[in-house]
Write a structure and sequence with these properties.
Layout: E1 8-11, E2 14-17, E3 21-24, H1 25-28, E4 29-33, E5 42-43, E6 49-52, E7 67-69, E8 74-76, E9 81-84, E10 93-95, E11 100-102, E12 106-111, H2 117-126, H3 128-133, H4 145-149, E13 152-155, H5 158-196, E14 211-214, H6 215-218, E15 219-223, E16 235-242, E17 252-253, E18 259-260, H7 262-266, E19 275-279, E20 287-290, E21 295-296, E22 300-305, H8 311-319, H9 322-327, E23 330-331, E24 335-336, H10 339-343, E25 346-349, H11 352-390
Parallel strand pairs: 6-11, 16-21, 17-20
Antiparallel strand pairs: 1-2, 3-13, 4-12, 5-7, 6-7, 8-11, 9-10, 9-12, 14-25, 15-22, 16-18, 19-20, 19-22, 23-24
Helix pairs in contact: 5-11
Length: 398
């Protein structure tokens, strides 16, 4: 007994509607492989054609113009799908918003008359995992034009392509609107930080001069450490051990990629709840608040706030002074701020009650931004599910 539902058929790419065909990408679209111009033709003066060499010019959706070439080679057209085909960014996609010269790290995909451009864009996006599976080399993958043109996908009649593309484009528009709102809220928060954390603007009910204090006056300063890696009993526990990799955009951390056991914690300095962690080697100034007793490695300086200083305020103070921290890093093979140098850096600080009020306002802003990011991520997940349904014909719109 066949598992194929009525109105569907088995094809080379799985079960699809009977009236849909199966095409190679090269049959439905023209694929233009980039060719890099001679290096001496590159310029940032706007001379010649704008040049796309790869991920440097890519953004969330449309490329940006960074450099030009006076001796252009291959061109993409406005509306083409731009696909990175070399290096670690292979599979990344943008949409061309102008005519560009494309270097060898990029391919331009242009729908033919039998296909809708937006539909092809979504099919290429959906096929990114397949494209990556075709890459060669684990460190610097790449994909050639022949492999791209050979990618197979289901192709419905043109009206249904357009209906599918319209539905998915509406979801994209919703996601883009959320991205723009997140950016707006981040900019508002950045302005608020600059005003509130410098005393430029006082909150209602507060006033008076702020005190200049060194970091060591905010609390005890500790540089982290690493339990001996060869002792298995020190590892695979449930105690967070923070490294710079664990520190992302989130303000709080209570779980880490690698966690230690009680014996491991006993071999290094324990950090209490509400310790503020700041990276001090290489990626200077990444920071987070430890919301559970734990530890950190030696690339991080921790501030254990005393009873006159608020952990959240210190976090935002460091967040707003990343440039200052970097300026005070010693320049060796790698940027570094020693515990000694970090401890004597100076900041203007208000009374505890004002610190708490400022931190609460900024925390509320962070909460709002995080909620928007979760909503955006939810819609992205919904879009992926829609793509799986619509691009394979499991759900029909026509």
């Amino acid at each position: 007994m066949s598992d194929v539902s009525e109105g569907y058929r088995m094809s080379e790419v799985g079960v699809i509607p009977k009236e849909w065909g199966v095409n190679e990408l090269g049959d439905a679209a023209e694929v233009v492989m980039g060719q890099s111009p001679v290096g001496t033709s590159y310029n940032r003066s706007g001379i010649g054609a704008p040049l796309i060499n790869g991920p440097t010019e890519f953004t969330e959706k449309y490329p940006i113009k960074i450099q030009w070439t006076s001796q252009p080679t291959k061109f993409c057209k406005k509306g083409d799908v731009l696909l990175c085909v070399r290096g670690s960014s292979t599979g990344r996609i943008n949409i061309s918003d102008d005519e560009y010269c494309i270097g060898r790290g990029v391919a331009a995909i242009r729908a033919k008359s039998c296909a809708d451009t937006s539909f092809i864009t979504f099919q290429v996006d959906s096929a990114v995992k397949s494209i990556l599976a075709l890459t060669t080399g684990s460190t610097f993958p790449n994909i050639d034009g022949k492999s791209i043109r050979a990618i197979q996908f289901p192709l419905p009649p043109l009206p249904e392509q357009q209906a599918i593309a319209s539905t998915l484009s509406d979801m994209d528009a919703l996601i883009t609107a959320l991205e723009q709102l997140i950016t707006k809220k981040r900019n508002i928060k950045q302005g608020a930080m600059q005003q509130l954390l410098t005393g430029e603007k006082c909150l209602p009910g507060f006033g008076g001069a702020w005190d200049v204090k060194q970091v060591k006056q905010l609390g005890e300063v500790i540089t982290g450490g690493t339990p001996p890696t060869q002792i298995k009993e020190y590892w695979n526990g449930s105690i967070p051990w923070v490294t710079p990799t664990d520190i992302t955009e989130k303000k709080d951390i209570s779980q880490t990629e690698r966690e230690i056991a009680s014996l491991g914690l006993a071999s290094i300095r324990k950090l209490p709840y509400n310790s503020v962690l700041i990276t001090c080697i290489a990626s200077i100034g990444k920071n987070v608040i430890l919301r559970k007793d734990g530890a950190c490695n030696q690339q991080i300086n921790a501030i254990l706030p005393n009873n006159k200083h608020n952990a959240d305020f210190i976090y935002y103070l460091m967040e707003n002074n990343k440039k200052y921290l970097l300026e005070n890093a010693g320049i060796t093979a790698t940027n570094i701020i020693s515990k000694k140098d970090f401890s004597v850096l100076s900041f203007s600080v208000p009374r505890l009650i004002e610190q708490q009020a400022i931190a609460q306002i900024l925390s509320d802003m962070d909460t709002e931004i995080e909620a928007l990011k979760q909503k955006r991520d939810k819609y992205k997940a919904i879009k992926q599910g829609m793509m799986q349904e619509l691009l394979t014909g499991k759900t029909r719109l026509v």
